[in-house]
Amino acid sequence: MKLLQFSISIFLLLLLHSCAETQVDNNVRVLILGRVVDGDSNPIENATIHVYTEADGLGASRVLLAEGISGTFGDFKITSLFGSNSRFYIEVTNGFEYANYTYTTNTSEYRPEDLTFNLQNVVLNKLSRFTYNITRESVAGTTLDFRFRYTDPFCREFFIDGELDAAQSYCFEERLTGRILSDDLPDAINREFATAFNSTIIFTYKINDGIEQEEVINVNLEDYDFSFSY
Amino acid sequence: MTFRSVIKLVIALLVFQFTFSQNNDSIRKTNNTPIKRSFFYDDARQKSYSIEYSFQYPISHGNNFIGEAYDGKNGYSLRLKLFVYKQLFLGYNQSGSNFDVSNTALVGNYSSTRTYERFFYVGYELLPFSRVRLGLYTSFAEKITFINSVNTTSDNKDTGDMWVYGVYLDYEIIKNLSFFIDYSFREVNTNIMAPAELQSFFSGGNYNTINFGIRYAVGNESVLKAMRIVK
């Protein structure tokens, strides 16, 4: 019994020890600046900028270091506290109608010399919800192999010591989604994904072993419904 | 020589003048009985030391992080004052002020800050009327810490040095016990590291304080006189 109590105590001690505490540095301020624009380079006013830091560990809490909004010309300049933690990130959002942007870096051993994070132009794509319905009208045994090639409207950038790390970052990347419809699952009903407003989607399909067909869709509505039957 | 140094020098000279010119200040009546000039020094009103506690109201001002982003709320001050020679005094102050943060976009995301102020001070007390004392002082060896209310388990702090100069008016209600009102100007030089374009905004700050308090004074000899160092 004593051995069990001792083991539990050691376990709890180790657990507590592994709990990292999010640190906010004393006597430091940094400047967050940039300009928020939409996919057509028009400035976005009143976009919201949040600056967070978070230690990497059990129980570490996320701390909001600063917040602000963009001005008439989309520009923002925000004074922020600073935390030497494994995650320091800046989120730029503009409601649910727009995709958000995230700048992430590890500040546990890095702090910019000029104490400035210049995000330059932050592009927030207006979102379009693309909903598709594909139904089978042909005889049983007919198959459809389809794919949608579209632009991911989101942007996540990861920096290491001030340099963009392409391996961990993605911005407006091309995505593919699709599947093969057959007797097991002949229809695809009310499937949806988000893409950039005014972007194009390439719909590619092949019925049975036929020739692959391609259709270009201009997504010019915030809620775009697409129907197809085979 | 900086403006601050000039003011400190002027205060030091005034204190020196008040303190060491007393021997010539005696006025003789026609019966040749010396009467001490009571404005600068009155032997009958001499104290050895005093303890003071006061409510402190901070007022931020200026084009700096304190003036632009902080709103003074309340505070306290605890002081111990030793009358070293005649009305010349040395003191130690420990105080705190609470500020609300009115513009987080200028300073970062914290809703309030409280200061922890420690300094020594030197000054001279004048005796313009019966029961009334008028004091002037300036600080030395000052430290200030701003404790910012950030949502973490440990406090976030800004530190710095502080220069204080002030004036007070004290009214003795009964023997050894008095009420006072104190005004001081405080200039803070911080240790905050900030980007070049914000450095001047964060490197210094100003606020005034108005204190209302109570003082309890003890003794009837200056410290040096009690120690028999001077007569």
CATH architecture of chain B: Beta Barrel
Q: Report the mean per-residue pLDDT of chain B as an integer.
A: 86
Radius of gyration from the alpha-carbon trace of chain A, in angstroms: 24 Å
Total domains of chain A: 2
The N- to C-terminal Cα distance of chain B equals 37 Å
- What do the pLDDT scores of chain A average to? 91
How many separate domains of chain B? 1
Reported by name, the CATH topology of chain B is: Porin
Oligomer: heterodimer
Poorly predicted residue ranges of chain B: 21-30
What is the count of DSSP helices of chain B, taking H or I runs of 4+ residues?
A: 5
Which percent bin holds the helix content of chain A? under 10%
SS content category of chain B = alpha+beta
What does this structure look like?
The complex is a heterodimer of chains A (230) and B (231). With 230 residues, chain A is mainly β. Chain A folds into two domains: 19-123, Immunoglobulin-like; 127-151 and 173-229, Immunoglobulin-like (Sandwich). Helices cover 7% and strands 49% of the residues of chain A. In chain A, strands 2, 3, 5, 6, 10, 11 and 12 form a seven-stranded mixed β-sheet that branches. In chain A, strands 13-9-15-16 form a four-stranded antiparallel β-sheet, with no helix packed on it. The mean pLDDT of chain A is 91. With 231 residues, chain B is an alpha+beta fold. Chain B has one domain (49-227): Porin, CATH 2.40.160.20. Helix content of chain B is 17%, strand content 56%. An eight-stranded antiparallel β-barrel of chain B has the order 3-4-5-6-7-8-9-10. Chain B has a two-stranded antiparallel ribbon with strand order 1-2. Chain B starts with a helix and ends in a 5-residue tail after the last helix. The model of chain B is unreliable at 21-30 (pLDDT under 50). Classes of the chains: A mainly beta (230), B alpha+beta (231). At the A-B interface, strand 3 and strand 4 of A face helix 3, strand 8 and helix 4 of B.
